[in-house]
């Protein structure tokens, strides 16, 4: 402690039994003196005692002389930390304060491993000490890890379910579009069907294009059906004309057959007539020969008579 500087005393009991500290600071102006103030630390003690640790953990407050200022056992106030546990020596506390962080020690009371944290109180030389059972502390951490993992798993499942629902909702129009195109590809499509997809993204634009394509295709199919009806009617008329022409050809064929038959009969008759003419000519020739023979006989028997030789002309065939 330097002269001329502010001092803060260690806690002590006042006449009414409360714990107080004295704060004194010299001043120099027109007059010189020391301003001193007694401050109760009851609120600080209450705050330390209200620190709740799980299971067997505890906290206590030490002053600059490593004497207990606040502890759950009021009978140990004013004593060293060794009164709580022999392992909490001044050297151990000083080492823990100097190294900082979490330290371990073995309790002299039950031989269990303990966790130790010594933290300085800002603006003072006091120290706040926290002691916790190692197994209990790690058990709490393990439980917290398990709870975190469980909550993470539940959250993952929930997120996965929501994501699946959202993705399926986003892809449902694409599935409808695929189904419509598949039906068209399989020949079972209804050209009057339209995709009712009201979206502003690429799927909505694609659905609109498909609807326009279906409308144009429907117009084309209607034209084809109309032309097919006309062609069918023309084909019917052609069939009727063809049947009429067939009947006419059949009649002509019948007439041709009759003419051919008549020609054949006429040819046979002409053959018979030629045969008969040839026979007549042969008969005439024979008759002429016979006549010549008769004339020769007559000539020999009646030479004085005028020759009478009627000439027989052969009949034309």
Blueprint of the fold:
Elements lengths: L6 E2 L3 E2 L5 E10 L3 E9 L1 H8 L8 E5 L5 E3 L19 H10 L3 E4 L6 E8 L6 E7 H52 L16 H100 L16
Antiparallel strand pairs: 1-3, 2-3, 3-4, 5-6, 5-9, 7-8, 8-9
Structure notes:
It is a single chain. This protein has 317 residues and is of the alpha+beta class. Helices cover 54% and strands 16% of the residues. Among the domains are: 1-40; 42-136, 2-Layer Sandwich (Beta-Lactamase), CATH 3.30.450. The longest helix is centred in the C-terminal third of the chain and has 100 residues, at 202-301. The chain starts with 6 loop residues before the first strand and ends in a 16-residue tail after the last helix. The chain is rod-shaped and about 225 Å long. It has 4 helices and 9 strands, in the order ββββαββαβββαα. A 5-stranded antiparallel beta sheet has the order 6-5-9-8-7. Strands 1, 2, 3 and 4 form a 4-stranded antiparallel beta sheet that branches.
Number of helices: 4
Give the SSE order as H and E letters.
EEEEHEEHEEEHH
Number of strands: 9
**Architecture per CATH nomenclature, i.e. the level-2 architecture of the domain at 42-136:** 2-Layer Sandwich
Fold-level CATH name of the domain at 42-136:
Beta-Lactamase
What fraction, in percent, of the residue positions are helical? 40-55%
Radius of gyration: 71 Å
Report the average pLDDT across residues.
79
Low-pLDDT runs of 5+ residues are none
**What is the structural class?**
alpha+beta
Largest sheet: 5 strands, antiparallel
Anisotropy-based shape: rod-shaped
Distance between the termini: 183 Å
Q: Taking strands numbered 1, 2, ... along the chain, how are they ordered across the largest sheet?
A: 6-5-9-8-7
Strand content: 15-25%
